[in-house]
């Protein structure tokens, strides 16, 4: 007995998924979006903890291994989104399959994306406040790591910063949407876990950029500036710390990464698979019918 969906079956399955998502109520979408933001935030905090302490004599050590382990633990975020069920902005880029098949309108798709994006932001920000400001967990070395992660995400790349982060956003959601499709193809929990694990591990270890993860990482760094010990251990100058602000969060990261995520998931996965397995198959059927009618 087959325990997975073949690519053509899987692509058609996402037409129905897109129709359902487009017609959910505002409250349902918002609440599911908040939950997904929290789940990704949990994974981001977990990765921050694992990424703490990889320094010797002031210099980073075993960089690749650190990134790999951060990627390994971050995979739990997508598992919690998919298996219990919630709505993640980046995964919903696959609604372009239903859009291309003219089953939903562009306005309905944008409505879904907008509500989910808002919900993801609320959930991520809520968890960042709880962990970085209220729990005491970021008062030391973990807070210093949060500050460093946020600073790198806002200031890395110089003049080409937004282009770099746009490309990193494409790479990230190309992998995330493949993970979502693979998890949907799997018909059991074990298969779904493995489907989430490898692509998400790959995007984190590769230093690609995920808009919803950054809704936790960067606010957590901003809030950690209020922890004296974290600031001391971060070895950031006052000028560097001043760059950690909400304006830079939006202009130096979130916009570029979000647009990259849309292209990576919506175009390079959703539209590509619609062309491969639905549009081309329909053309093949039309051609066969035309030949049959002539006969």
Topology:
Blueprint (H helix, E strand, L loop, with lengths): L6 H16 L3 H25 L4 E2 L2 E2 L2 H20 L13 H5 L5 H29 L6 H15 L5 H25 L3 H17 L5 H14 L3 H7 L3 H5 L3 H49 L1
Antiparallel strand pairs: 1-2
Helix pairs in contact: 1-12, 2-3, 2-5, 2-9, 3-8, 5-9, 6-9, 6-10, 7-8, 7-12, 9-12
Molecular structure report:
The protein is mostly helical and 295 residues long. It has one domain (7-290): Up-down Bundle (Glycerol uptake facilitator protein). It is built from twelve helices and two strands. The chain has helices spanning 7-22, 26-50, 63-82, 96-100, 106-134, 141-155, 161-185, 189-205, 211-224, 228-234, 238-242, 246-294, and strands at residues 55-56, 59-60. It has a two-stranded antiparallel ribbon. Helix 2 packs across helix 9 and helix 3 (63-82) runs antiparallel to helix 8 (189-205).
Structure characteristics:
single chain, 295 residues, mainly alpha, Glycerol uptake facilitator protein, two-stranded antiparallel sheet, 2 strands
